[in-house]
Specification:
By secondary structure, the protein is α+β, with helices and mostly antiparallel strands. It has 3 helices and 18 strands. The protein has an 18-stranded antiparallel β-sheet that branches.
Length: 337
């Protein structure tokens, strides 16, 4: 992901400056003089409080925009969505270009860039609006040799433990039959790793970082084992905040076009299994894919996808969560070329 677009940031800067100027003027009037009546002074003070609130909000919006190193502007987009009530329309484009070449000695090099505009509704993941405001000037480079790949992309590589963070460089490949990857973020001195493979029929994945969202180290070990149509899974997570130390056990069962899944979760260090849980039913046949999911909070997600062919697809999604401000119903079309 690239950095925030200059036009979008300029708009936030202009809004902040306007709010600061308005607040300065209001504060000057509020200071008043001794000749003002108590009623006039009270009115001026109230106006100063209102402009100060607007200034703080404008400054926070700019800070949230700049704090998104991956360029998806999720914080700013979430703020924009939270202010909407009722039906609205969104459109976006996301354009990716990659060029590659390979030398005679087997070294391959690729360079690419990503540009876009508008807001994409992430209906089949976290149902947020993702601003596609990437700058065409930001490029990512990858060099591959003997099965190993080195990627460099300033603030454009996901942390392997938590993709809410972004890094600058990654190295990935295979070692002793295991897939291995590491990332690093130079400015924030953050590193992460991921090791995955199959041992005795059990698929294992270990991920970790030395700087999670709370500023400490974190790790997670996940395992799954398939027995025909039945798959068993489990995971253990250890973060610097004990409340995030979730432990899970789950199963999924495939029945022709249907797959049913259930996961029991022990939340935090002091929770118990079953305090949290997830249940899902998925259907896939031909051009149609649909899913239903719910959990212990009665949060319900229903998603329907239909492949129209030729790179076009239609979708409908409903996310019903605790609190009406978190609900979303989306209907739309996607085109890929």
């Amino acid at each position: 992901m690239a950095a925030a677009s200059a036009d979008q940031r300029a708009g936030l800067v202009a809004a902040e400056r306007a709010a600061i100027n308005a607040d300065t003027n209001a504060d000057t009037v509020a200071a008043g003089d001794a000749a003002e009546t108590a009623a006039v002074q009270a009115a001026n003070d109230a106006a100063a409080v209102a402009t100060n609130t607007a200034m703080v909000a404008a400054t926070a919006a700019l800070a949230a925009y700049d704090a998104d190193p991956a360029g998806t502007n999720t914080a700013a987009a979430a703020t924009a969505r939270a202010s909407r009530d009722g039906m609205f329309f969104e459109s976006y484009y996301d354009f990716n270009v990659t060029a590659s070449a390979e030398s005679d000695n087997g070294i391959s090099v690729s360079v690419g860039f990503d540009m876009g505009a508008g807001n994409k509704i992430d209906y089949n993941d976290d149902d947020k609006l993702e601003a596609q405001g990437n700058d065409v000037g930001d490029a990512d480079v990858a060099v591959s040799y003997a099965g190993w790949t080195l990627k460099v992309d300033q603030n454009g590589i996901d942390n392997l433990f938590d993709d809410s963070q972004a890094g600058d460089m990654s190295l990935s490949g295979s070692l002793a039959g295991m897939s291995v990857a590491v990332t690093t973020d130079q400015e924030n001195d953050t590193n992460s790793y991921k090791v995955s493979g199959t041992v005795g029929g059990i698929a294992l994945t270990a991920t970790g970082t030395d700087n999670d969202d709370a500023g400490g180290s974190a790790s997670k070990l996940a395992a799954s084992y398939g027995m025909g149509d039945l798959t068993l899974s489990a995971s253990v997570k250890d973060e610097s905040v004990n409340a995030n130390d979730d432990t899970t056990v789950g199963l999924s069962y495939a029945m022709d076009t249907l797959t049913v899944g259930y996961t029991s979760i022990k939340p935090g260090a002091d929770g118990s299994f079953g305090d949290e849980w997830d249940f899902s039913v998925k259907y896939a046949s031909g051009a149609v894919a649909a899913s239903f999911a719910t959990d212990e909070t009665d949060a319900t997600t229903i998603i329907f996808d239909y492949n129209l062919g030729g790179g076009a697809s239609a979708f409908a999604a409903m996310h019903d969560k605790a609190g009406t401000n978190s609900d979303l119903t989306a209907i739309g079309l996607n085109f890929a070329f």
